[in-house]
Amino acid sequence: MNLDEAILQLISRQEITDQAVLQEQLEEAGHAPSQSTLSRRLKKLSVQKVNGRYQRTESPPVVAAIAPRVSIIEAPPNMLVLKTAPGYAQIFGVALDREEVAGLAGTVAGDDTIFIAVRDPSLLQAVRATVEQLILRGPA
User: Distance between CA 130 and CA 106 in Å, rounded?
Assistant: First the structure.
């Protein structure tokens, strides 16, 4: 059983109210994620604390047909800038962060603009290609 499956199984079988408790339970099950890794996995799995306990929450789907037009501007050596319709930048920013794109250092999203920092300038084109695929697919 991988880490994601173990997390989902634990939160569905028992009421877990603290991330440290979840981390201990995972260690007992043979997984040893760091706190930051556990937080990233919870975010990717859409697991949040609801009414005092960790539960899986589903984001409402965004229909690609209503997604706004997005343009990508390269800002070498290691930055991409996405321009969206007002109100869509944060949706795309969260989708990028959840995607765990190789080479992506992080995003900063405003109302209609996202700054994407790339770890290594040699990865700029690969990150751009992944971002373009995400745009075509639409944020989830």
Answer: 14
- DSSP summary character for residue 73: E
> Nearest Cα to 105, choosing from 86, 69, 78, 82?
78
* Whether residue 110 has pLDDT greater than 90: yes
In the chain, what is the greatest distance between 2 CA atoms, to the nearest angstrom? 48
Residue 112: count other Cβ atoms within 10 Å of its Cβ: 16
- The separation between CA 25 and the C-alpha centre of its own chain, rounded to angstroms, equals 24
Torsion sign (Cα): 97, 85, 64, 82: negative
Q: Tell me the C-alpha distance between 30 and 16, whole Å.
A: 18
Q: Is the pTM of this model over 0.85?
A: no
Local confidence band at 23 (pLDDT 50, 70, 90 cut-offs): very high
